[in-house]
Amino acid sequence: MKNYYIFTFLIILSGCGGGGGGQSSSTPEPQNNPPDIINTNFEYEVIENVSFAFDVLSTDPDGDPISYEINSGDDQSLFSISNVGSVSFINSPDFENPQDNDTNNIYELSIRVFDGKAYSQNYDFLVNVVNDAADDDNNISPVCSVQSDNLEYCTLSWENLSREFYLAKPLDYSSENSIPLLISLHGGSDYATANMEYTGFLDIINEENFVAIFPQGTVAEGKGSTGWYAGGDCTNIEVCDLTFIEALIDYSIDNYGVDSKRVYVSGFSNGAFMVYTLACFLSNKVTAVAPVSGSLSPEDYDNCNPVRPMPILHIHGLNDSQIPVQGNDYITPVQQVYSFWKTENSCIQELVIDGADTNGDGYAWYSDIATECSEDVSINFTYLENFDHYWPISNPDKGGGSDINGPEYIWNFLKNYQINNASE
In 289-366, which ranges are continuous DSSP H helix? Predict the structure, then answer.
């Protein structure tokens, strides 16, 4: 019995580790200190057409590798940042065509850094884009000749190309009065002279009192016929029609008393594709648009970036054999274009209006309309039954004829809108 108790006691002492501490304690992991941004300046000035904006300077107390992140700000999507903290515009800024949220050439973004364990606080940066006087598009000097009492034919040298346009004024025109501008773009393999005739805009110019410009597309190396180079990224296309048309807008404002708040663009076929390019990338200067028998190109659909809600009247023949409403690999389906702009303009209400068969051919028309959009804009996609790839006029020989009068229908939509903060 005595031996039993001694054995038990030895076990207890062994279990207690003889007072030696049993388990060994682990070394505490050192505390991580977050990285920080150490710039002393948070506002930078960048001249237009230059992509690089500024460098982010940072430090980490523990010497950990640092990564950079643009994580907020009204204009964050317009910038990229490298793995060494260099901030650049994704597309080079254009002073005459600001893309920032407030369209005032002041770009806002917030940046933070990360050391793999902790983030720094957010730091707000401003980038002010300033004008490059050598790049001003306002200073074009076309040579114009009078064709009639209210029509001029003009030529100019633009980006090493000879460009042409016709400018028409109402009979009671006065440069002392503020007046709206309508630009009409012809189709592919087409001419400005023909566009003046078939659109019918000159038939209503006196009554509605607007200036009209009919530009001529180029026959550039990449095209075998006249047309427009739709697309907002002029670095990848042979001719930059976007800047050419912008220059015409600026010229008309400076020299013909055009109201910068009321600049409208319409176009047919290939010209309609160019109209959508302007809606996407020149919305600070184009008030409202009316494309006819065209669509939004897949490239513009992916990259479209209007700076304000855009009123749109789209007209299309349901039997269009050249630009089918259902689209293809090169043409965005028209219904998809409607949905894009309905979302882009934050429209709430939709309705369908059925039009009358006014020419008695047994076919009519209807409009898909979206209203209650941002800034009181609307979109109207009008479809003409039994109508092929034609400009809408009441002619029974053209695909069954149109039940709407194109020029009046278009102008009655466009004239309802103006830009509240036009960029001049």
Answer: 298-303, 334-344
Tokens linked to 414:
């466009």
pTM of the model: 0.71
Per-residue pLDDT of 101-145, as tens digits, reads: 999 999 999 999 999 999 999 999 999 999 877 666 446 889 999
The closest alpha carbon to 73, from 57, 53, 58, belongs to 53
What are residue 267's DSSP bridge partners?
Answer: 185, 291
In whole angstroms, what is the distance from residue 282 CA to residue 280 CA?
Answer: 6
CB 375 within 8 A of CB 418: no
Using alpha carbons only, how large is the chain's radius of gyration in Å? 31
- At 140, list the tokens: 């074009």
Other beta carbons less than 10 A from residue 351's beta carbon: 9
The bridge status of strand 86-89 relative to strand 52-55 is antiparallel
- For the segment 220-259, what is each residue's pLDDT rounded down to a tens digit? 666 678 999 998 888 778 899 999 999 999 999 999 999 9
**Rounded Cα–Cα distance for residues 365 and 164 (Å):** 36
